[in-house]
Write a structure and sequence with these properties.
Shape: globular
Radius of gyration: 14 Å
Distance between the termini: 21 Å
Bound molecules: adenosine-5'-diphosphate, magnesium ion
Strand order of the largest sheet: 1-7-6-2-5-4-3
Number of strands: 7
Length: about 150
């Protein structure tokens, strides 16, 4: 689908989170819900996440973790956390060591959203939802959702 402006991408993120909340209520989950976001700088990955976090009920401002790699937010009404990973500055698997990514992915009460997820390498989980972002014009972005179940 194509969004026209950042508000529409945020709104889509909110809807994806609302859908996940419904799913969580209906089925037990074995690991975290993992969303892998790919697309060039400025394609709208962080913008999507701002709406997604709001859809989970998170009210704190979502900062881009570009220098920190991982940020964690408590999910209201749940024991779980939203982990926001941005792997833009990751250049090899050694950069991923010690972040506890495996533990985040194994935690069934949590949600993990990863920008530049293609850099996860062997840590990329089989069960995940991929969301690709493509720049179509100044304010148009093409979003492609591919669930891997
Ligand atoms: P990324 O995290 O992929 O690097 P950001 O979400 O940080 O990208 O930035 C996207 C930029 O593009 C923002 O400045 C935003 O205002 C702008 N933008 C314009 N149109 C859109 C759109 N349809 N969806 C998302 N962002 C858009
Ligand atoms: Mg970003």
């Amino acid at each position: 689908m194509v969004t026209h402006g950042p508000q529409e991408t945020q709104e889509f993120g909110r809807q994806v989170a609302a859908h996940l909340k419904g799913e969580n209520a209906a089925y037990p989950r074995h690991g975290a819900a993992v969303y892998c976001l790919t697309g060039e700088l400025g394609a709208g990955k962080t913008t999507f996440l701002q709406g997604f976090a709001r859809g989970l009920g998170i009210t704190s401002r979502l900062l881009s973790p570009t220098f920190i790699i991982v940020r964690r937010y408590g999910i209201p009404g749940s024991d779980g956390f939203l982990y926001h990973l941005d792997l833009y500055r990751v250049s090899g698997e050694h950069d991923l060591e010690g972040l506890g990514i495996r533990e985040m992915i194994d935690d069934h009460s949590s949600v993990v959203v990863i920008e530049w997820a293609e850099r996860l390498g062997r840590l990329l989980p089989a069960r995940r939802t991929d969301i690709g972002f493509e720049v179509m014009g100044e304010s148009a972005r093409k979003l492609t959702v591919t669930p891997h179940i």
